Amino acid sequence: MFKHFVFKTGICIFLGVSASGFSGCGGTELENKSFPLAVLISEQDGQYKSCYLSQQLSEVANERADGGNMTAESASGSTYYETHKTFEKNNRSQLDTSHTKAVIFQKEFLTGGTLETFLETVRRENTYARNTLVYLSDSSMEKLEKLNSSLEVPLGSYLEQMTENEKEIKEQAAVTLGTLLNEQANASRTLLVPVIQEKRGTPQIHAYEVLQNFKPKGRIGLDEAQIYYLLAGQLSQMDIYLNRKEQLRLINMKCRRNFVMSDGKVTEQIVLTAQAEHVTGTASRSAAERTVKERIERICRAGMEQGIDLSDSARYLPLHAPDVYRVYGRQAERYRENLEFDVLVQIRMISRQ
To answer: Which terminus of the chain, N or C, has fewer Cβ atoms within 10 Å?
Structure first.
């Protein structure tokens, strides 16, 4: 399956770049271009470092390609634009990132305005496709370079395939460069940027970095992220463990909200409806509803103690609570300080097919 994916990806890139080459745009021969499938970026002490993980074009359309023949070329500079140009000068090739699958930042990239500057360059130069996936990494660039060479498929393709094959989280939940560009302009949402780490020879998501109003707010774990996706309507299914013998799977989940303000305090009333099927055991509907309710409220309240609104409620105020928006619309932090949660869960039990 993976080899078929490599072949399919390679053909798409080959045909795409061939078309651009034959169209006369830029007049650069294919052998004088570099097409990274993933780009690693870090910033330290005012210096950018980028590593471009590419597959040799001679291998990219080879049906028997096994993910090998990868190149990892680095460049550095005082700005990302400078690293781009330094790479082209040192490698005597034109860098084409329009087919890049993933951009992977080192964790320090979110501080000091570095991300904003990078996105401004992307917007101005139009160098990446907006659907390019975005990750942070706790593993060093050197580890990711080695990982790129050892995986059955290139790292960028692996991450794209991992997103497409995710059964629980819907594909539209993925954070892309387009997502970040939109949020940079609007600064109105709570976003979760996945953090990957090399474990047992594969890249795995082990945490999420929270951007709220386009500011880093710290990290959350996988359980907290699951509640965020649930309330955002971006969860396809959710497994609930009531105890060691009782497991349910929630499907067809829908969430609606209402906001009530009294004496400056805002209560977000969340109504979650879902269907549930037994995986093991014979848990009752009421036990399932109580378990889900308590989990949502506990995780949302714990998030607020960190200043993180996992319900992403502020974005719903203009449409669902204009009276609250008139009071707190431009005071997001003050709004969150006065936010409380009241959750109602309604589950309908169904039989497994």
So the answer is: C
Rounding to the nearest 10 degrees, give the CA dihedral for residues 256, 260, 265, 267.
Answer: -30
Beta partners for residue 276, in sequence order: 250, 349
Specify the DSSP class assigned to residue 49. E
Taking alpha carbons only, the member of 212, 319, 206 closest to residue 259 is 319
Residue partners of 200: CB distance under 8 A and separation at least 6: none
As a dihedral over the C-alpha atoms of residue 290, residue 293, residue 298, residue 299, rounded to 10 degrees, the angle is 130
Other CB atoms within a 10 A radius of the CB of residue 143 amount to: 14
- Torsions phi, psi of 232, nearest 5? -85, 0
pLDDT category, 57, cuts 50, 70, 90? low
Between CA 52 and CA 38 the distance in angstroms is 6
Apex 256 CA angle, 251 and 259, nearest 5 = 150
State the DSSP H helix or E strand holding residue 53, giving kind and residue range, or none if neither. Answer: strand 47-55
pLDDT, mean over the chain: 86
DSSP string, 280-323: ES---HHHHHHHHHHHHHHHHHHHHHTT--TT-GGGGHHHH-HH
DSSP labels for 208-264?
EEEEETTEEEEEE-HHHHHHHHHHTT-BSEEEEESSSS-EEEEEEEEEEEEEEEETT
pLDDT value at residue 135 = 96
0.90 exceeded by the pTM?
no
Q: Residue 2 in contact with residue 153, Cβ under 8 Å? A: yes
CB 240 within 8 A of CB 249: yes
The two beta strands, 70-77 and 237-241, are unpaired
Rounded mean pLDDT of 296-302? Answer: 96
